[in-house]
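Following up on my earlier message about T4K. Here are the inputs again, as you asked, copied directly from the submission form:
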Amino acid sequence: MPDKPIYVTQPSLAPLEEYVELLKGVWNSGILTHNGPLVQQLEKDLATKLGIQNFVAVTNGTIALQMAIKALELKGEIITTPFTWIATVSAIKWEGCTPVFCDIEPDTFNIDPTKIEELITENTVAIMPVHVFGNPCDVDAIDVIAKKHNLKVIYDAAHAIGSTYKGKSILEFGDISATSLHATKLLNTGEGGGCVTTNKELHEKLKRIRFFGHNEDKDVVEDGCNGKMTEIHAALGLANLKYYDAVLADRKYKYNLYKEKLQSVEGLGFQSLKIGKPNYSYFPVLFRSEQDLLSVDEHLKQNNVYPRRYFWPSVNTYKRILEYERKDVSEDIASRVLCLPLFYKEAVEDVLFIAELIRNTKL
Ligand code: T4K
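Thanks, got it. Here's what our run produced:
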């Protein structure tokens, strides 16, 4: 048994000295925030790394979603997925819109494009799918529906830095993508996030919204908020960005190792990766029943291993903040998915140990 607990994830962190080196510049200049040089550098370097036109760095992924809704001036119903983190839905609600849940595909865990059209009403203004666990949605099918019904598309790409489709970053699909740079993500700034759009006007507007709605003369020209990333966070992002390729390759290796060791276990299933390339940022396992999941979860915990039930329960069942409407596939998948520990510092022996524990659990 490992002497220290193995949690579902740990932040990927650059050597401390490299972070401190960047902080020295911050201490010398005294510039802590307000679109400082490190934020600008992070935006530029990250855009180059991902091969995208631009990146608007913000305080977290939730505010990135809210800013996207604000920038597109949406008021009405937004069709989204119930198999997600609560932030997808709280962002919609905080912007005064109404979430309408579309059920998911049982294999990819992403929104089911064949079920979107039946939910469109005269009040529908947008679709907000999630690239669940970094697995790209069927962006072509979603684009066809959006164009046909004149709807905007905001991708919740919180998990999806590093995921691609047709050789292009998944962040450049839809009108705007909102991503997260939270501690638990492939690339992190502690807390952080970003908006990505290929539309230059929207890009400028997002920058103004991030900064109280100010234009360059500090006139208020938008309904803005405070979404500014600090230099301290940007420094961490820049330090970590140097290790981005190594982290991505490491996750892919461990993902494939888990798969290799677990694929012959009867009663276990995996997320289908059908469209584009994922970033291997999570390793979700699908059990035959919730009882099987609970047995494995218990066995792992007895051995100091702590996986997580992302995303359970299905968000449509949060009755305190939403009117309940059944979503059979999402509720079923949410009850049977367990994410196994997967992170840069995880020892390969620990991956093998966890896989062995699962193989040895009586299902
Ligand atoms: N949309 C989607 C689809 C999302 O999944 C999320 C966030 C968002 C939007 C919103 O993005 P942000 O506003 O958060 O940028 C995490 C994160 O808080 C959240 O960012 C993430 N999704 C969600 C799926 O998971 P927890 O509940 O897993 O955090 P916690 O504290 O239980 O940490 C998990 C494990 O990670 C711990 O066992 C230990 C380790 N850990 C965690 C932190 C925070 C560390 O080692 N160091 C740390 O600093 O929420």
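One observation from looking it over: Residues 244-262 form the longest helix (19 residues). Hope that helps, and feel free to reply on this thread.
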